[in-house]
Write a structure and sequence with these properties.
Elements lengths: L1 E3 L5 H5 L9 H16 L7 H10 L1 E3 L10 E4 L3 H6 L13 H21 L7 H14 L1 E4 L2 H7 L2
Parallel strand pairs: 1-2, 3-4
Antiparallel strand pairs: 1-3
């Protein structure tokens, strides 16, 4: 899996502790948040999907500014991606990378909602961070075509 971040969204990515093709701070923050919540009895296991994605995605140099202003994610192995998505209904027949991405985002939003059930507010640092991450991951183009991905990368 590869991701190229467009110049338009570079500032938004900084909100989630991303800098210079380095997502380690984001991952560390998510792991710490998940551990703190789980030890406090708040189970937000849907963060596992996002963590798996962030561990396995390769960040490449930016988007061709003339071609596209957003970010693009190339997912090369649909079956591998599918293995890491938790789902309530059967998606064994799902062949759409876009549908799987939406399921992952839905699960992520449910993890955020779980925090609200335990009294967290929009102003809590972790909620602000998670909402920013949800926004970043929502405003991307998803493709399983390397040619499409390569055409948009500088």
């Amino acid at each position: 899996m590869k991701i190229a971040i467009g110049y338009t969204f570079a500032k938004r990515w900084e909100q989630i502790k991303y800098s210079n093709n380095n997502i380690k701070e984001t991952i560390a923050y998510l792991e710490e948040l998940q551990q703190e919540c789980n030890s406090g009895g708040i189970w937000i296991n849907d963060l596992d999907e996002i963590l798996w994605f962030l561990y396995n995605v390769e960040f490449v140099d930016g988007i061709n500014a003339n071609a596209y202003s957003g970010s693009i994610i190339y997912i090369d192995d649909l079956e591998e991606f599918k293995k890491h998505i938790n789902y309530i209904s059967s998606i064994d027949n799902c062949s759409s990378i876009h549908e799987l991405w939406l399921i992952m985002l839905r699960n992520f939003n449910e993890a955020i909602d779980e925090l609200y059930r335990y009294g967290f507010q929009d102003t809590n640092e972790c909620v602000v961070f998670l909402r920013a991450l949800a926004t970043v991951l929502s405003y991307v183009t998803i493709t399983d075509s390397y040619d499409k991905f390569a055409d948009m990368v500088v």
